[in-house]
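Action item from last week, closing it out:
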Amino acid sequence: MTPLDTASEQERLDAALASYGETAAPFDAAMRGYMMRTFEPFWREGPCLQVGCAHGDQTSLLAARFADLTVLEPTAAFIAETRRRVGEAVRFEQAFIETYATERRFDTIVFSHVLEHVEDAAACLARLAALLTPTGRLFTVVPNAEAPSRRIAVKMGVLSHLEALSADDIAAGHRRVYRLDTLARDVRAAGLPVVHTGGIFYKPLANFQFDALIGGPLVGEAFMEGCYQLGREDAAACASIYVIAEAPR
């Protein structure tokens, strides 16, 4: 693994911060709850590590689920905001995955919407694998290249192809867009046995369209629940895809 240029990487993160806004957008916040529902049957009990906290929506949910929660986050502003939300019960570590060192091991590692940002995906996955207990599990979640909203964008000419980086991808600091097969490929390349894969939330609209419509007469709770349930049947049509892997044997 090539040593990380932390100064350059921090510049990338700082440039991307503006794309996140002051609070989580409505669709992103809703997705955190759907992720927790999806993963509930697969959690391991014991210490949990969350990699990347952003505004802290998922951290709040994880803190309610896990008594021992550590958050690994390189951005001081996100740590400060999330700490205000969750208090002192959560342990925070300000570092990049590539430079994080600890003697602790975790039964659950939540790696949600971070892999698409990192320089060396397989190397970061391998570093997280080394932080698992022998029976631990790594939950890796990324945006889905094959979501219907992206397929529509290709037909509109907004994207040249499904795995092209959109303007929003670039602004957020994404380096790649995954399909489920390419996500599983990178997880396996890190030496992690895959135990379950799937998708979260059928996505017919772009994020900004959901943000404008959520809570109104067109996109109420029943519609959102319907999209979540339909997504359980068709991973390729979901907003996010995931791979659950176990510690290397």
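Closing note: The first helix runs from residue 6 to 16.
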